[in-house]
């Protein structure tokens, strides 16, 4: 009974989570906005055009998504704009093909389902309820209209349904699971020589000529970071709350509304105990009635309800507690249940009641009357709630006003003066962001380095730092990269030269050792002549404790040696050491799987991988069969 309620609750939570995922996909993925007829086309897919406007918008959104996902690790200099544009265009083509296939297959999402999904998205809610003003503000901040958002959301749902349907059709055979398990449990006999980097590195001292040459050749590595200093005005919800006054009459009116609602929703509570006799697969109704009659007879004979519940009840959760269900409100377990307990006096036992869970014999052991709080008890909470309601409306109105004024203004002086805000100035920061809350925010970084803001001197769009704070910024100072003086980077150049020379020497030495070993020179002699010593691990597993991960990765990629022979390879460890690896034997792993849970996990892993491959193949087949034309820029 309680388990059924938990399952209903889980399904509701799952629906909300799916809604959030769909929302995040819609605003951070490769969204497409409505084509602009004034823009030329960049491609045509089965007669459907992809405009240059769509492409430029999607490239910009993808770049912003990269900044949000990678944060301080994002380095714009490493982004090939042409490659990014080509990848985005390819994604738009794939999107068009998938949507065409969905329409061809008569797939659709109803307007009702779409509305329900949008209403459930937390980003559009205020105090747990959908808020139209917040909905529009969030969409405006990402450059979308409600119609565009609905269109994108509908398309993303269709695409997800297609991908899930195709990828989810994959299955895994028992033979594939056994094969994967055998490979996973495979072991290898390995030995290795370690060429230590520290000994070589300490003996190297780059010359002045080498340092200068490295400085000049790698000048791009020694540039100062491109940075900006921004001015900004921020508006916080908390600052507006202090300006809101609530009269005593407003508080009392709110108290009356509050208590009126409580009167409608508050119900008396009963402490109920039950003896549940399940019907269905376990027993039919006639058998349940016979069992209930037996219980009634024993109750009539004076036996304890609690003891009989422990003996007879089919509800494992309440049976151990003597049938005690705790305090129960009306409406929780159905009409038949409520009718039965409403007619019972304290400690009176009901006749068997047929509910959706089976036959139930009930008794009420206590009742608790619903009480209403006094005005003084809830005054502080009501004041806070009314202020929160007022400030939410005020904050949305003021946010829209700030956005409008800033859009029209040539700097931040007008919005600051008109709205009573202070113009603040940041510390310099680069494209990876600064160290404080403002300059480390991905949206602030994206706006600060946006072309219109950075190069044209425009005020930014309204930026939502959090649901409680928004700001508008403009660039005060743009600092271009400059080459750092040699003396400032000399130490790092010396370290780089030492590392390069060390690696070259060790790689050359490792190659010479491998040649000797392949020519049949005794392995002990090879090690002794080089002043080294062999280490080893027989039947080493893929995650063998005490053996470097890079060494194991290389060892398990090496080809199987012939009987009585060895194969050799080398790899570099994180500290710069080079190891020469000798593989002498491969031992097949056990194919059988004893752990059912592990087998299911492996099957799920393989099926997911196969599903992705199958979906990729489906997309490729759509491309092969499609008429796709990509226009050159001069067409």
TrEMBL record:
Record membrane topology: Single-pass type II membrane protein
Record's keyword terms, sorted: Cell inner membrane, Cell membrane, Chaperone, Isomerase, Membrane, Rotamase, Transmembrane, Transmembrane helix
Gene3D superfamilies: 3.10.50.40, Porin chaperone SurA, peptide-binding domain
Main location: membrane
Residues that span the membrane, as ranges: 12-30
Residue ranges of every copy of the PpiC domain listed in the record: 267-366
GO molecular function: peptidyl-prolyl cis-trans isomerase activity
SUPFAM superfamilies referenced in this protein's UniProt entry, alphabetically: FKBP-like, Triger factor/SurA peptide-binding domain-like
Keyword Cell inner membrane: yes
Subcellular localization(s) per the UniProt record: Cell inner membrane
Pfam families for the chain: Rotamase (PF00639), SurA_N_3 (PF13624)
Family note: Belongs to the PpiD chaperone family.
Protein name: Periplasmic chaperone PpiD
Taxonomy of the source species: Bacteria, Pseudomonadati, Pseudomonadota, Gammaproteobacteria, Oceanospirillales
